Amino acid sequence: MNEVVKKNDAMPAYLQGGKTASFGKIDAKDLIVPRMKLMQMTSPELQVFDQVKVGEFFHNILEVSVGKEMRIIPLVLRKEIVLWAPRGDDRGILARSRDCVLWDDGFENLEFEVKHKGMANPVKYYTKGSVAESNLAEFGSMIPGDPKSKPAAAMTYRMLFGSPDHMDWGPFLVINTRSSLNRGRGLITKIELRPVDHFAQVYVMGTTDEQGDEGPYKNYSFTSAGYASEEEYNWAKGLFERFKDQDFASTDEHEDTPVEAEGGAKPTSDAKTRDTSKAAGKF
């Protein structure tokens, strides 16, 4: 197993003037947005890195564990509907709708066969022409024929954050869905209640202990922690301006089948258009 390296992230004074050269002719398609992953008992990183522990946050590109809490500044929110394969199914994401109305290109009119834990026979999902036509975001769709089953497709928040304590890391992605969806909604509510721009607000992202259908797991917590300093505000505003109109994704999102896959709240959407600028759900 590898050892997580505790790196010294303090930038030397002689480098604090910023970048003066470009590594090459690159654009957004060349960049991977890092994930900050909350380690669960099922997280594969536990088998790879000696010092990673359940309940810690792990930066998947830098391969650094940052402990059980960290200060964050909200940058950009993307809201979407995701059809997840059952946990343990290597396919992860089966289909997604970034505007919560129409499936993304290539995901329309598809058929998927999945097998849920404890079920003798597999079930089939049909995406059809839109999210509403498929009925996959409604209760009773995870197990067709069982009106008490949860939605097969889940509302998902893909939230881009920055950490004022690690400004040289840039932005990173945090995903809230199913059992963590309400934690994301709670953060959004706190952001909207405060009288300044979201990128001027600081929160502590931590963890809680929860009990789900498949046993104990870790969930997110978001606690208000005041306002950004002028330096932090200018830095976060710059990141917001850079990413507010861009799509962003991490290479391992397909591996993120949610913990407590049978749980979650009923997705809702007031989106009326496929225009990504209107469906972005910016903080």
Structure description:
The longest helix is centred in the last third of the chain and has 14 residues, at 230-243. Residues 3-8 and 260-279 have low confidence and may be disordered. The chain has a domain at 31-79 and 155-255. Helices cover 12% and strands 27% of the residues. It is an alpha+beta fold and 283 residues long. The protein has helices at residues 131-134, 181-193, 230-243, 276-279; strands spanning 36-38, 57-59, 64-65, 70-84, 93-97, 111-114, 123-126, 153-162, 172-177, 201-212, 215-227. It is globular and about 60 Å long. The protein is built from four helices and eleven strands; from the N terminus they run βββββββαββαββαα. The strands form three sheets. Strands 4, 5, 8, 9, 10 and 11 form a six-stranded antiparallel sheet that branches. A three-stranded antiparallel sheet has the order 1-2-3, with no helix packed on it. Strands 6-7 form a two-stranded antiparallel ribbon.
